[in-house]
Write a structure and sequence with these properties.
The protein is an alpha/beta fold. The protein is 34% helix and 18% strand. Helix 11 crosses helix 12. The longest helix is centred in the middle third of the chain and has 29 residues.
């Protein structure tokens, strides 16, 4: 049985295909259209998934959308009615779109699917899953657990913003929910907006900014904005927010509380924004920990699965892991709305169709999140030649040796191998790599390669067998969704003068033997790399270790700021030529920047709207 899952029309549209319960392929539409967070119907992602499964659209048994539009419309109407006449401007903007398209989504989906196959006429195959059930399914069914608590936290689905489900075998039941407008995701997004970043894309910047500040505003947030109960339930004080009725996240009362208006995106970051970031991060962690402690005590279960946009807050995830109220934690790597496509398909297969579930003997069922397109060697060579690239085709041993040598020499290496990752993180197949021992590597990659803010941290990829020697972590973290500190004996002691520094002044002080991946609070967002899951990437890090004694590489996504992760070999070559990446490895093609046609170099970063 083949089930196609879809998410679309809000942000991060995606498609996924499941065959007899096994995830065959999954991809976000943005990777094909080159429009970050593309919300349009995922035509190209669907076409890819069908090709990967070897099926036509007519051969798909069920097509499942990740939420229920009628319930969402009900929530919008009830919200507008509850706050009327406030919110009329927002109401006036939203209603025409709903009445024209979204309310009749079954018809719209059929129309879009016929763009793939004009003969397709099977509306009875179209199903709709509830948003939070899709999230929960995406976390539980691929997890390595027979039984688990499943906690979903995001902005809002139809009504739910936080939900608790229990998974046992092939059964998954949502037990209870917290409803809109009370939302941890929207609370965090309100601060994303207030500190001058884009909602639904800048939340990870807020998280990265937090260690530069002090949580001076945490008490203000607790006293005025959120009422957190001992069982983890909560309510927000809506007097300070505008997202129910207006076109912004916060209002003038919020401004008064934090000493001024929101930062404009073009204004420099100040200590206020850093302290606000530190404060909301602390409060979010407190709320999540209160929830998980309560659930562990109430259920007595040992395993926890996490999904929803809040589950991408890897700092909070690391706190939950170290809290040890649950023995084991697994986070869906595409925890945001893109992952809803996987969850919708699995919900239909296991729930509606009664399909059996087989828990993997080792690892999980996400295949390392390597679920996107790959390109064979002949195709890579043809594509690069067409793009005007100059390359040498080498064997595996030479490719690994040359790439490891370049990394040890301090060069930035573009690494395009195998199947593209599903979810927001590059995990060693569409990555830009560097030497973590270099004190300059973070600023070089941020400013000359990624064209992004200098404060943004980079993640380490570390050989799984050596992770505990470098970080305060000794468990799998394959999806870069857990933060842990660098071990004490790898840290560098700071002088008294250095310890007195505040904010961004802390940035250029090396804090460990691997300064390029050590954040200002000694933390790191860790990816453990296993030979079972990604043998080629594991071999590259091993070759780097042979040369340097260090089993760690800097791993950042292969793109510039505002651009989606590269998908094709041509995407990789364009990014290579538009940045200061010095070496590119695509399959077994090895490219050096100095050998390329200089006329192909261009101002690449200007093509994309900044995130």
């Amino acid at each position: 049985m083949h089930v196609l899952g879809l998410s679309a029309f809000y942000h991060d549209s995606a498609a996924a295909i499941v065959a007899d319960g096994r995830i065959i392929a999954a991809a976000q539409e943005e990777r094909f259209t080159r429009k970050k967070h593309d919300s349009n119907f995922p035509l190209q992602a669907i076409s890819y998934c069908l090709k990967a499964a070897g099926r036509s659209l007519d051969e798909i048994d069920h097509i499942v959308f990740y939420d229920k539009p009628f319930l969402k419309f009900e929530r919008l109407l009830e919200t507008y009615m509850a706050f009327a006449p406030r919110g009329f401007a927002s109401f006036r903007m939203a209603m025409p779109i709903w009445l024209k398209e979204k309310l009749f989504q079954k018809s719209l989906l059929g129309k879009e699917l016929r763009k793939i196959d004009e003969k397709w006429k099977a509306p009875e195959k179209l199903l709709f899953a509830e948003h939070h059930l899709s999230h929960a399914a995406s976390a539980f069914y691929p997890s390595p657990f027979e039984e688990a608590v499943v906690l979903t936290m995001d902005g809002v689905g139809e009504w739910a913003t936080t939900s608790v489900a229990i998974g046992r075998g092939a059964e998954l039941t949502v037990e209870r929910e917290i409803h809109f407008p009370h939302s941890l995701g929207l609370l965090y997004s309100a601060f994303t907006y207030f500190t001058g970043f884009k909602v639904n894309s800048g939340e990870y910047k807020l998280m990265g900014l937090a260690p530069y500040g002090e949580p001076r505003y945490a008490k203000i947030i607790r006293d005025n904005l959120i009422d957190l109960k001992p069982d983890g339930s909560f309510r927000l004080n809506l007097d300070y927010f505008d997202y129910c009725t207006g076109l912004t996240m916060t209002n003038s009362r919020f401004d008064e509380l934090f000493g001024g208006p929101p930062r404009r995106a073009d204004q420099l970051l100040t200590q206020r924004e850093m302290d606000i970031a530190a404060s909301i991060q602390l409060v979010l962690e407190e709320a999540v920990l209160t929830l998980t402690r309560s659930l562990a005590k109430e259920t007595g279960l040992a395993n926890l699965c996490l999904a929803g946009g809040v589950a991408l807050n890897c700092v909070a995830n690391g706190k939950v892991l170290r809290d040890k109220t649950f023995a084991n934690i697994w986070v869906q790597p595409a925890a945001g709305d893109a992952g809803g496509a996987v969850g919708a398909a699995l919900t239909a297969y296991h729930g509606l169709c009664g399909g059996a579930r087989k828990v993997p003997a080792s690892g999980d069922a996400m295949a390392g999140a390597y679920l996107g397109p790959s390109y064979d060697q002949a195709d890579i060579e043809a594509r690069l030649s067409q793009a005007g690239a100059k390359f040498e085709v080498v064997d595996d041993v030479t490719l690994l040796s040359r790439s490891a040598d370049a990394l040890a020499d301090g060069k930035a290496v573009g690494w395009h191998q195998g199947r593209m990752e599903f979810g927001p993180r590059a995990l060693g197949n569409r990555s830009i790599l560097g030497d973590p021992r270099s004190p300059k590597m973070q600023s070089v990659l941020n400013l000359k390669v990624k064209f992004r803010e200098s404060f943004r941290p980079f993640a380490p990829s570390v050989l799984r067998e050596h992770v505990a020697e470098w970080f305060e972590l000794d468990t799998d973290s394959p999806y870069m969704l857990m933060v842990a500190d660098v071990v004490q004996d790898r840290r560098k002691t700071m002088s008294e003068e250095e310890q007195k520094l505040f904010g961004i002044d802390k940035l250029n002080i090396p804090r460990s033997d691997i300064p390029a991946v050590t954040h200002v609070d000694y933390s790191a967002r860790i990816q453990t790399v296993s030979a079972d899951t990604n043998p080629r990437y594991h071999a590259l890090i091993s070759a780097f270790k042979e040369r340097t004694g260090c089993p760690v590489l800097v791993n950042t996504s292969f793109n510039v700021r505002g651009e989606p992760l590269v998908c094709t070999p041509e995407d990789a070559f364009r990014c290579f030529m538009g940045t200061d990446i010095e070496v590119l490895a695509v399959g077994n093609c090895y490219l050096r920047k100095e050998e390329q046609d200089p006329s192909l170099k261009r101002s690449y970063e200007d093509q994309f709207e900044l995130d």
